[in-house]
């Protein structure tokens, strides 16, 4: 049988909080049929009462089992606590509920916290909560991208990412880094992320603060430099093929145009740089 937090809150009101608790319980009852958590923002005036917030926390964290967000009154009371600006209240909320829910893999509770953070627009007091919630879904998304089993559905992952901008940005970077080594084409990379080219360019520009073309070019240059430096014993033709060039001429044109040196010049310069680094390491300079 689920705990009715509204009834328990009213029945356990400490001396001095009877009136405030009764008023809160009455308002929460009126909000139980709300279709969106946005309605719960109306509880913000009660969040200013620190003693009332601690009374709510005592109730939610004082049970042997973690509270269930589907229990009557739990959702609006969590929103109220999130609206508090008191540091101690936020610490108790984080360590008493958010962290235990995450460790117990309580996905319904973590999804509701996405709603809380979305509706409150992640004010500074909730940054630590946001980190916990984002980490929970990011770890599972990383498993899914790596083809590892995850208990979360695609719909749940997408819901969290739509609610939390920091999570969306982190997942976008994860996918770009995961797939970019396969291509040097913005069009192909957009397809790998299941986006139109225009949407991909827009998202990329907002998250990376530069164009996708420029970033891919920089990544390609970095990879070429690493290959020329650490695979100095390989023929230039092989390094050109590894980096997606159709011919030695195309490789030469890219190096001279984008890196201002020919492949041979780069090869020698980077090999000399590697030798200098090794001498410094072995001689302890």
Automatic annotation (TrEMBL):
Pfam families: HTH_18. Residues 185-269 form the HTH araC/xylS-type domain. Signal peptide: none annotated. Transmembrane segments: none annotated. Gene3D superfamilies: Homeodomain-like. Keywords: DNA-binding. InterPro entries: HTH_AraC. It comes from the Bacteria. This is Helix-turn-helix transcriptional regulator. It comes from Bacteroides gallinaceum.
């Amino acid at each position: 049988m689920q705990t009715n937090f509204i009834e328990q809150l009213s029945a356990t009101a400490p001396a001095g909080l009877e009136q405030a608790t009764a008023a809160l319980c009455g308002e929460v009852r009126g909000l139980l049929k709300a279709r969106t958590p946005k309605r719960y923002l109306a509880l913000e005036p009660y969040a200013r009462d620190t003693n009332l917030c601690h009374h709510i926390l005592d109730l939610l964290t004082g049970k042997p089992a973690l509270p269930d967000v589907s229990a009557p009154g739990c959702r609006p009371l969590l929103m109220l606590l999130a609206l508090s600006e008191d540091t101690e209240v936020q610490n108790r909320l984080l360590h008493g509920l958010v962290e235990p829910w995450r460790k117990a893999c309580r996905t319904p509770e973590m999804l509701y916290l996405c709603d809380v953070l979305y509706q409150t627009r992640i004010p500074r007091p909730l940054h630590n909560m946001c980190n916990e919630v984002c980490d929970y879904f990011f770890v599972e998304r990383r498993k899914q991208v790596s083809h590892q089993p995850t208990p979360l559905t695609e719909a749940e992952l997408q819901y969290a990412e739509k609610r939390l901008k920091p999570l969306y940005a982190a997942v976008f970077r994860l996918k770009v880094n995961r797939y970019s080594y396969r291509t040097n084409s913005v069009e192909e990379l957009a397809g790998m992320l299941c986006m139109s080219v225009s949407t991909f360019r827009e998202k990329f520009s907002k998250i990376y603060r530069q164009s996708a073309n420029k970033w891919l070019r920089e990544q390609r240059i970095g990879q070429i430099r690493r290959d020329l430096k650490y695979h100095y014993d390989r023929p230039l033709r092989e390094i050109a093929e590894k980096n997606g060039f159709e011919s030695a001429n195309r490789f030469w044109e890219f190096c001279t145009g984008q890196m201002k040196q020919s492949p041979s010049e780069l090869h020698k310069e980077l090999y000399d740089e590697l030798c200098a680094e090794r001498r410094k390491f072995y001689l302890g300079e």
